[in-house]
Amino acid sequence: MYKKAALIATFASLSLSSAAFADEQADPNVNARHAYMSLLAYNLGVLGGMAQAQMPYDSDMAATAAANLHALSQVDTTRMWAEGTDNFSLDGTRALPAIWENPDDFVARFAALTTASEAMAAAAGTDLASLQGAVGALGASCGGCHRAYREPE
Known about the structure:
Layout: H1 2-22, H2 28-51, H3 59-73, H4 98-101, H5 103-123, H6 128-149
Helix pairs in contact: 1-2, 2-3, 2-6, 3-5, 5-6
């Protein structure tokens, strides 16, 4: 019950913030992409916070965040990455045109997220040491894609 409530609360809060952002950003693909990335970041923040002792380790919360990440990594996001939704074509996005120049590499980097999130899902609820052991690969999968395909802030 806790897991469903947490997931519903996450989607509800992000839907509200996404709705506010939608007024500024007309492209629904970019809106969906931002909401998707926010969900990834929210759940990764829980795991990273625990791994770095910024919040207490809670096995149920860690398992839920890891399961959410893994489920999100399996969502078909193809429509969110429509050609012409890069930062040179639209305001309000940091997606680089390189995404559409190197589609096979981009897809492979998403596959790495799925692999790393699966390992995290197996480890997160076990104990803090297991979570800490899996968080590096998860962060590397995110960072590898962002370094190649997202404009720095």
